[in-house]
Amino acid sequence: MAKKSKTYIWQFVIGLGFFSGIWTAIGIDPTSVILNVLGDVVGSVYSDPGVRALLLLLPVILLVISIVGAYRQGKVLGLISVLIAYGAGLFILISTITSLVLLCIAIFMGYLATNRRLRKKLMGI
Length: 125
Description:
The protein has helices spanning 3-26, 30-45, 49-90, 96-114, 116-123. The protein is mainly α.
């Protein structure tokens, strides 16, 4: 597997998509938990409302940066693979088999999204 494909699959498909889906299925958002603790610590040391507002906007900023990064490396097919991986994470508590099948599809699509030569062969371009 090419380095670019491997990095994309681990960082975006599994990291951004699948694990985010699992956290949503469980009902915990680790980013907000960490940022709430960080906000309390920063608020007790440095009580500027601007810093608190920045900490509230940080999860949205990080999500936008992640989505833009996924698009830049995998284009539309890559974003679709991340969404399918997110769905796989959501289904993990309902049906493990369905979740694993969706994750395999997402990984394959993520591989295709970053491997131009193989995509050209399959599409006949």
